[in-house]
Each structure stands twice: as C-alpha cells, then as structure tokens.
Amino acid sequence: MGRSSAVRRRSWRALSYPVVVAGALSILAACSSGQSQARAGGSTVRVTERDFRISATPARVAAGDVVLSVRNRGPEQHEFIVVRARGAALPLRVDGVTIDEDALEAAKIGGLEPGAPGSLRQLRLRLAPGRYELFCNMAGHYLGGMHTQLVVS
Predict the structure, then answer these.
(1) In total, how many domains does the chain have?
(2) What 3-state DSSP class applies to 141?
(3) What is the CATH number of the domain that holds 74?
(4) Of 16, 80, 94, 125, which is least packed with CB atoms within 10 Å of its CB?
(5) Which one-letter DSSP state was computed for residue 138?
(6) Do 47 and 73 lie in a common domain?
(7) Of all residues in the chain, what percent carry a pLDDT higher than 70?
(8) Do residue 74 and residue 95 come from a single domain?
C-alpha cells in the first residue's frame, strides 16, 4: 500500500504540472490580448505633473477614444483639467492666480480632482480633432508653467 500511494502521488504531480502551466499561459494570453484590444481602440497619453510643469507623451494622437494617464511626480497636490484650446490666453479669475473655469465652461472637456504626490489617475475622453490645453488650476500653478497642449488629428 505504501509503494502504490507514492506512485499515485508522483502520477498526480506529473499530471497536474502541465495543467497548472497551461492555466497560467491562458491567463497571460487573456491579459495580453485585452491590452492589445485597448490599444487598438484608442490612444493612451502619459501625462506627468511636476512643480511647475506638465508633459504629455505623445503630444499628438488620433481623434477618438483617449486615455490620459496622469502621474503626479511633484511634492504638492495637482489638479488636471482639459479644455479645447481657443488660441487666446486662458482667462484669469479676479484673484489673478487661477484660470476662470466658469468662463471656459463651453470649452471644458474634462478634469480630475487634485491628486496627491505620487498618485496615478486616469481620465478617459473621446476627443475630436483640434488642440487641447492640459493644465493644473491650483493657485499660481498655471501661471508657474503647469500647462501644455495636446494635438488631436
């Protein structure tokens, strides 16, 4: 009885190993095909916020579904706002240090609440061809240089 149960254990291990490997490969294949489908259905823009600048890579994308992946690499909180660029300077509030978002309401496309240092946030938008201004509207941040443009064609 001792020898046959040892043989059964080895047989079980020999049979279960390929099943475990096949299962792991199936999971990996499913994950990677999902990522390919997400990429095929739109663009991803990596946005980095630092004190006091914003960068977007790539800075040009195709029209359609766009995911803005926003990483705050600065030591302070930062907002993230997207408006359709109008060609003119963005209007300041009476305080002189923040953009008047009410005046931009028709041009505002989307935004994210302030993100803590080190945070990663995502904003999904459907963008038409044009130029978009990406900026932080915390007091003084826009004037300090925290804005860039994204071109959609």
Answers:
(1) 2
(2) coil
(3) 2.60.40.420
(4) 94
(5) S
(6) yes
(7) 73
(8) yes
Residue 62 token pair = 């195709």
- What gap in Å lies between CA 125 and CA 149, rounded to an integer? 15
Whether 81 and 54 have beta carbons less than 8 Å apart is answered as no
DSSP one-letter string for 55-122: EEESSEE-SEEEEEEEEE-SSS-EEEEEEE--SSPPPB-TTSSSB-GGGGTTTEEEEEEEE-TT-EEE
For residues 19 and 46, state if they share a domain: no
- 70 falls in which pLDDT band (50, 70, 90)? very high
Per the CB < 8 A criterion, the answer to whether 87 and 130 are in contact is: no
Here the tokens at position 145 are: 């240089």
Note whether 71 and 123 are same-domain residues: yes
Structural domain for 66, as ranges: 42-152
Total number of residues shown for the chain = 153
Structure tokens at 50: 């630092």
Q: Phi and psi (nearest 5°) for 116? A: -70, 160
Same domain, 73 and 104: yes
pLDDT digits (tens, 9 = 90+) for 106-150: 788 999 999 999 999 999 999 999 999 999 999 999 999 999 999
